[in-house]
Amino acid sequence: MDPILDDPTLLARHPATQGPDDAARTGHVVITTTEAKALARELSGQGGISHSQVLEAAAHAAGHRDWNTFHAAAPERQDDPVGRQRVIPVLRVFDHQLAREFYCSFLGFTWRWEHQFETETPVYAEVGREGCILHLSEHHGDATPGSGVMITVPDLAAYREGLLVQRHRNARPGISRDAWGQTMTVLDPFDNRIVFWQRA
Asked: Per residue in 33-89, pLDDT tens?
């Protein structure tokens, strides 16, 4: 029996979830995704409950079906200070460990979080780099393998040099120069096309 999952009022009593009168009106806890992640770190660090279990419980307490639904519906405060909408591409991956090695160790992204419903189920993760956010999913149907995204960078030549010095066996990209700027295409291990673009 899990006290957090079986008694959502435990979340409601935590300082991170104390908000205005919205909770009383809706019956749901008022919490942002940023606060939910901080709460998950704190509670999972105390043992007895996993990070992902806290995130799922926070999503349910906030009135959402699951963490992915909550995270998609509730932008993080620091990412969206004036309420602008943000589009986050979802790329299909088949091995989250290989994806982490490629996107983080090679391309320089940060592995921000990951979610699994159970230990052996597919992973859904978020990576970020200099304001760019990508979601990587092992779930069948979330995205089509071989998709493409375009990411703007301020200095493409410098970024490329940082990649080349790593001497990756399958990724030594070149730069194309066109009227609209310079582009560099990198294929990830799952045939997704990541195009880095420096505007003209």
From this structure: 777 777 777 777 777 778 788 788 877 777 778 877 777 666 554 445 545 567 899
Are residues 91 and 187 in contact, defined by beta-carbon separation less than 8 angstroms? no
pTM beyond 0.70, yes or no: no
d(CA 108, CA 130) in angstroms, rounded, equals 10
CB atoms < 10 A from the CB of 132, how many?
15
Q: Cβ distance 151 to 91 under 8 Å?
A: no
The bridge status of strand 148-152 relative to strand 132-137 is unpaired
Of 3.30.200.20, 3.40.640.10, 3.10.180.10, 3.40.50.2300, the CATH number of 90-199 is: 3.10.180.10
